[in-house]
Design a protein that fits this description.
This protein has 565 residues and is of the alpha+beta class. It has two domains: 224 residues, NADH Oxidase; 221 residues, NADH Oxidase, CATH 3.40.109. 28% of the residues lie in helices and 19% in strands. Strands 2, 5, 6, 7, 8, 9, 10 and 11 form an eight-stranded antiparallel beta sheet that branches. It has a six-stranded antiparallel beta sheet with strand order 15-14-13-16-18-17, sandwiched between helices. Strand 13 and strand 14 form a beta hairpin. The longest helix is centred in the middle third of the chain and has 22 residues. The two termini are 43 Å apart.
Length: 565
């Protein structure tokens, strides 16, 4: 790996003028879309329910290949997703591909209330609006696909829409360029789905949802013994490869913004170079329109999307100095409550917490330990990222047995503890709690009841104070953008979304629930933790605790019942 670009002792080189302008655009957007006590970020003054976006993109004229629903009841334990090499790699075929998508991007249930129904998915989403779309570039599969092709995943039908095929010459070049037994997965965002409700802050939420989906993809791959690695050189090729630049195919429809390409397969030590990949040549299908009209449009979203499109390839940062598994988990986790299937497909966002139930300290430490890369960063899901952690946690601890209530900090990169400590106000305790695993850089900052404070800065939402603990995800922000460019703004959100995805699943394993909180008062969060400069910014909030179920809602299965295993 190359030496880290993150050198605290030396400033990064000055960016070229176009990139400097992009960085200014990104920083201006982030400031503009902050929530404050006296005002919220700009959004629609009213909910126009007649224009609520269709949550399902389809391409009219693109043939749909239904995938066989995997049999329920797989016995793979949830904990095995995080242990490299314990799951034997599955061959790439229709069944394994179906299971991958089922665990990553599929529907998990339908909810209904008074004649209205809506779908839940394996990848959570802000407001359940689901801006994220998934694509797969697949080689020929025996008995299923005759030639290499690009497919759009249709979650409502659990099927693949064939968007484009490769002619024989291009297919042969593709097979030569990509390792056998794997495929490319791509993610895009339809910003309008979030902007319809959340206005200018929607770009933030779309990026968090990309992080949720990235985490879901990585753990779905782990369930099949596969790896996943982001393609560092995919930014230039991605829009063309996924057909996002085809104006005629999106005429009258909401456009999609390219997010990422990743290589999925049994061996992903390095992602294959995508620079020489031929694009598909035989295209089919036109995107459906999601809303009959747009009552409000938000040009600043297009501006920040253009500014944060990567201008330079992201190199690997070093993976040294992280704690061993034994230092994070004592002993290492080799048993648990849930299967991987039940944890992933049974995940739900809590709508309220009971304000009373504590969680054991062991469960609390385990949840936090999952968020820290191990050793050489080769364990899922952090092996999917090429950079060292930039997201650290400010915690409001309310109800953890044996742990004093108060404000805490979790530093996810041991090399950054001193920087974060120096950025916070003087006088904080920085004391390790009793029973904390030696590899977990968790510190008590200030003891006391912080329930009201947590709820207040989370846009006055009681759920942030009613759980066992809540989280403010603090990004190492300005230095990261200066070192790695405006495109890294997206990556910070992806990392925060991936942290949130793990908290969701770990809460399920612990017998409680989690909820992502996108609405928070940005600068008041910083004030709570004594962060005076703009170098560190809150990118996401989260809460974990015992849920209060809404018994008015009915739950229906996601798909017709598959056969039992």
């Amino acid at each position: 790996m190359t030496r880290s670009a993150r050198q605290d002792e030396a400033p990064p080189p000055a960016p070229p003028p176009d990139e400097a302008a992009a960085e200014l655009t990104v920083v201006a957007y982030h400031e503009r879309t902050k929530h404050h006590f006296h005002r919220y970020a700009a959004s629609s003054p009213r909910m126009d329910w007649a224009t609520q976006p269709n949550p399902f993109r389809r391409f009219d004229g693109a043939p749909l290949l239904p995938l066989p629903l995997p049999a329920e009841g797989r016995s793979l334990p949830y904990w095995q997703l995080y242990v490299p090499g314990v799951v034997a790699p599955a061959p790439l075929e229709a069944g394994s591909l179906s299971l991958f998508l089922r665990l990553a991007l599929s529907l998990t249930a339908w909810k209904s209330f008074q004649g209205t129904r809506w779908a839940l998915r394996a990848n959570p989403s802000s407001g359940n609006l689901h801006p994220t779309e998934g694509y797969l570039l697949l080689p020929p599969l025996n008995g299923v696909l005759d030639r290499a092709a690009l497919h759009h995943y249709a979650p409502q039908e659990h099927g693949l829409e064939c968007r484009a095929e490769f002619d024989p010459a291009a297919g042969a070049a593709l097979a030569q360029a990509l390792p056998a037994g794997g495929f490319l997965v791509g993610l895009t965002s339809i910003h309008w789905r979030e902007a319809w409700k959340y206005g200018e802050r929607a770009f933030r939420y779309s990026q968090l949802d990309t992080g949720h989906a990235l985490g879901a993809l990585r753990l779905a791959a782990a369930a099949l013994g596969w790896g996943l690695r982001l393609a560092g050189d995919g930014a230039g090729l991605g829009p063309r490869l996924l057909g996002l630049d085809r104006d005629a195919d999106f005429a009258g429809a909401e456009r999609e913004d390219f997010e990422l390409l990743a290589w999925v397969g049994p061996r992903v030590d390095t992602c294959p170079s995508l620079g020489g990949l031929p694009p598909p040549s035989i295209w089919q299908g036109r995107a459906n329109r999601l809303s009959p009209r747009h009552t409000f449009d938000w040009p600043v979203i297009d501006e920040v999307a253009a500014a944060s499109a990567p201008m330079r390839a992201a190199g690997d940062e070093d993976a040294c100095g992280f704690p061993a598994e034994e230092a994070l988990f004592d002993p290492p986790v080799r048993e648990g409550r849930l299967s991987a299937e039940r944890a992933i497909l049974g995940r739900r966002s809590a709508v309220a917490m009971d304000g009373a139930t504590p969680i054991p300290a062991a469960a609390f430490f385990r949840m936090l330990a999952r968020l820290v890369p191990q050793g050489d960063r080769s364990a899922p899901p952090w092996d999917a990222l090429s950079w060292r952690p930039r997201i650290h946690l400010g915690l409001f601890v309310h109800r953890v047995e044996g742990i004093e209530p108060g404000l805490y900090a979790l530093v996810r990169d041991p090399s950054q503890t001193a920087r974060l400590r120096s950025a916070m106000r003087p006088g904080l305790r920085w004391q390790r709690p009793p029973g904390c695993p030696p590899g977990l850089d968790l510190y008590l900052l200030e003891a006391g009841d912080c329930r009201a404070k947590a709820a207040t800065v989370a846009c006055r939402q009681e759920i942030a104070g009613d759980g066992a603990f809540s989280v403010a995800m603090l990004a190492d922000y300005l230095q990261s953008i200066a070192a790695r460019g405006a495109g890294f703004y997206r990556h910070l959100f992806w990392e925060a979304g991936l942290v949130g995805q793990l908290l969701y699943l770990e809460a399920e394993e612990a017998g409680v629930r989690g909820t992502g909180i996108g609405c928070f008062f940005d600068d008041p969060v910083h004030e709570v933790f004594g962060l005076a400069s703009r170098d560190w910014q809150c990118f996401y909030a989260f809460t974990v605790g015992a849920p209060v179920e809404d018994t008015r809602l009915s739950t229906l299965p996601a798909y017709p019942a598959p056969p039992q295993a």
